[in-house]
Task: inverse folding
């Protein structure tokens, strides 16, 4: 399996009457840029979507909720012991700050951790009670904060619960929630070929990543996320090490004939891809291939796949 090449990712998805990423420090409201009214979604939210999808497909995931033998939620140190060589487990249980892994044990520990696909993708910081067993891997796959391609409107909704507010009370509990009527969200990511060497990320892993972003978004069916739809996913893979164009997400525009807050559906606007195409054309000699997925309901100014094929860029259109 070949080590992952340098590539750039653009991912657009939308949500209607939901909360794509609540802020626990602000009544779980959708995150907003107060100056522009743009909806913000953290990279951690997207990575969790990927992890959940890969977990459902039975891939080994390190960063997930696990429990100790006592039934409490495990911390990073406890989770790390699951990947220690058998010969080193007694050292973890002693918690003696003089205990160290042998060179062979440490190498086996690292290799065990890198069997987890999320670590090969996103890296990790894994603490340990064993003196030399704390691990840190810089993730080859990194995403910037996602942002809506238009200003959004925050709606406050109140309702009643199903149960009484207390013993002997006839009054039901009240609930209050914040929703966005609509948000079209743009994520930008990059696959770093340098870091891929150290975590073992392969081209096959990147293919799984692209699928997990798309399918995971569709399968994130919770009360506040139901109805999320992936609309556009582009992965530009480069021929040369260390080379990439950068900022491809800024080459895409969403044009709508109303105020941004009034947008309610993907069909209310057109995704303009001409600037992106021009940028890819200028750099075509550096591009190995383009992987592209486009939802049928997305309206665009050009057929990007056909235009790229015309100029000789290899285009992969996974189902």
Result:
């Amino acid at each position: 399996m070949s080590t992952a090449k340098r590539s750039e990712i653009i991912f657009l998805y939308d949500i209607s009457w939901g909360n794509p990423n609540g802020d626990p420090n602000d009544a779980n409201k959708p995150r907003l840029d107060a100056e522009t009214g743009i909806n913000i979604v953290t990279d951690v939210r997207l990575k969790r979507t990927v992890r959940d999808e890969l977990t459902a497909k039975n891939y080994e995931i390190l960063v997930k909720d696990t429990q100790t033998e006592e039934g409490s939620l495990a911390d990073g140190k406890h989770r790390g012991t699951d990947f220690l060589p058998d010969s080193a487990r007694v050292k973890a249980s002693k918690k003696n700050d003089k205990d160290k892994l042998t060179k062979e044990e440490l190498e086996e520990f690292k290799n065990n951790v890198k069997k987890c696909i999320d670590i090969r993708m996103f890296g990790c910081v894994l603490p340990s009670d064993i003196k030399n067993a704390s691990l840190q891997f810089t993730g080859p796959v990194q995403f910037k904060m996602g942002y809506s391609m238009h200003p959004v409107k925050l709606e406050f909704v109140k309702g009643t619960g199903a149960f009484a507010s207390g013993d002997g009370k006839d009054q039901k509990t009240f609930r209050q929630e914040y929703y966005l009527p609509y948000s079209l969200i743009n994520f930008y990511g990059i696959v770093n070929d340098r870091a891929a060497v150290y975590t073992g990320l392969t081209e096959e892993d990147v293919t799984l990543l692209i699928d997990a972003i798309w399918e995971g978004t569709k399968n994130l069916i919770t009360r506040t996320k139901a109805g999320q739809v992936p609309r556009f996913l582009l992965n530009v893979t480069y021929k040369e090490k260390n080379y990439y164009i950068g900022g491809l997400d800024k080459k895409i525009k969403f044009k709508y004939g109303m105020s941004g807050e009034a947008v309610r559906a993907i069909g209310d606007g057109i995704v303009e891809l001409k600037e992106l195409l021009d940028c890819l054309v200028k750099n075509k000699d550096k591009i190995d291939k383009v992987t592209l997925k486009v939802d049928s309901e997305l309206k665009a100014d050009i057929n990007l796949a056909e235009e790229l094929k015309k100029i000789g860029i290899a285009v992969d259109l996974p189902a």
Summary: Residues 203-219 form the longest helix (17 residues). The longest strand covers residues 172-191.
